[in-house]
Amino acid sequence: MQTDIDPRNLIGRKAFDAKGTKIGTIDEVYLDDATGVPEWAAIRTGLFSRDAFVPLEPSELIDGALQVPFDRALIKDAPDFGVGRHLSPEQELQLYHHYGLDITPSATLPDHDFGKLAGTEEA
């Protein structure tokens, strides 16, 4: 995904799956702890009012909407970790495995609540 996009501008945008079927609306964007780069979007699916995490890479922003290269059913079945909290490295690995993405985990960081949600300012 384009990394020059302000993650706050993603919130409220529609998201579509690989077939063009609407998934829902982006509720939150999660940043990588080490780099601050937007990494995950929490999409309100409308299915039992739950948010599903989707990776922003390899998703694309097309015509103002997020195009996610996965099927809606796979997204719907993603692990549910709740929103508004920090994703631990283990939870991120579970999500990457769920989507079949091959990642090499970086050095394990301590599981502290130092992650930030896009658009939140802390002193």
Proportion in β-strands: 25-35%
Q: Helical content, roughly?
A: 10-25%
Task: Give the overall average pLDDT.
Answer: 83
Number of helices: 2
Query: Strands of the largest sheet, in order across it?
Result: 4-3-2-1-6-5
**Topology as H/E string?**
EEEEEEHH
The tally of strands reads 6
* Radius of gyration over C-alpha positions, nearest whole angstrom: 14 Å
What is the approximate shape? globular
Largest sheet: 6 strands, mixed
Tag the structure with descriptive keywords.
123 residues, alpha+beta, six-stranded mixed sheet, 6 strands, 12% helix, 25% strand, globular
Question: What this model shows, in words?
Answer:
By secondary structure, the protein is α+β, with helices and mostly antiparallel strands. The protein contains two helices and six strands, in the order ββββββαα. It has helices at 72-76, 89-98, and strands at residues 14-16, 22-31, 38-44, 51-55, 60-62, 65-67. The chain has a six-stranded mixed beta sheet with strand order 4-3-2-1-6-5.
